[in-house]
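Hi there. Long-time user, first ticket. I'm pasting a complex I've been working with (about 356 residues overall). I'd like to know whether the download I got is complete or cut off, because the file seemed smaller than I expected. Thanks.
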Amino acid sequence: MKPTSIISAITKLAKRFQLLLSIILLNVFALCNVNASPVDTFEFKDEATKVRFQILSKELRCPKCQNQNLADSNSKIAVDLRKSLYNLLQEGKSDQEIIDFMVYRYGDFVLYRPQLNKQTYVLWFAPLIIIFAFIIGVLLVLHKRSKAKQIDLSSHEQANLDKILNKK
Amino acid sequence: MKSVIRFIPLILFVLLGILLYRGLFLNPQAMPSAMIGKPLPNFDLPRLKAIEEKVGRDDLKGNIVLLNVWATWCVQCKYEHPYLIDIARDPRIKLYGLNFTDDRNAALSWLEQYQDPYEFSIFDEQGALGLDIGVFGAPETFVIDHTGIIRKRFAGPVNDKIWQKEFLPLIESLEAEMKNAEIAQGAS
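Hi, the file is complete. Here it is re-exported in full:
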């Protein structure tokens, strides 16, 4: 056999092998494509309830693992709370009732979006007040500057100014 | 006026600095219980040692009730256990257990092996009562006063130091409260 024909045979084999390899890899990747978030096997009565479950479990914070919501966490308490969230939804409780249920037991802490009450007025309104204060401050400064530009010169000063400017 | 304005950024910076510096030393794990000041919710659960016997809120007898949440899957409960045996000797309090989402056989052999400090343990397999009082882990210890109001929740294992610092002052003030209530009742 000529050396060239050997090489061509090898390349042909490699090409065939490449196809096989890519098929294998594709299958492996397809198998690897699992959902990373904890999956519970809840069966909802309808699609709307399922969506509400997903929204609420993202809005509610896990009390134990403090920087995760119920949907993300796999700690014991998060699993339990997802279960009770599911039960409450199946019982037909409204979103507000569920939030009240959780807040009664775990405090405002469980909400990622704090409710509007006496304790949270500062939290909600301070940014607005700061923005308004900033805008007013800027307007005041601008107003002052525009005023400062209109300086009335006396006739004597005007004559002096002209003289200096004309010297050039 | 102008010189004051010039210092405003510095003042703001210092204030922000103080705020953030304080934040460095706050314990993010220290969470107040939402249940403090609320009555202990009623329940209907079996006793751990006598599964056919259901108990409720009124079965937690005693002027000052300590409800200790424990489970065999909880490592810190093991650490806490000898202290609970000590605490249970205090005549002013009654210590009850809440066996939380646990395996009954494991819990029973735990009590056999390490002694049982509790008047009795409530067997809360599904964590229903735990959910109702905002338990998020074990161990946790609740203090319930003579009127059935939850006065304190301590999350984490109890030891001598914590007992003296966190619990004894409350127990003393509760004793005083009860005495005052008695006097008020006697007077009326």
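A couple of notes from our side: Residues 63 and 110 of chain A are 6 Å apart (CA to CA). Chain A has a mean pLDDT of 81.
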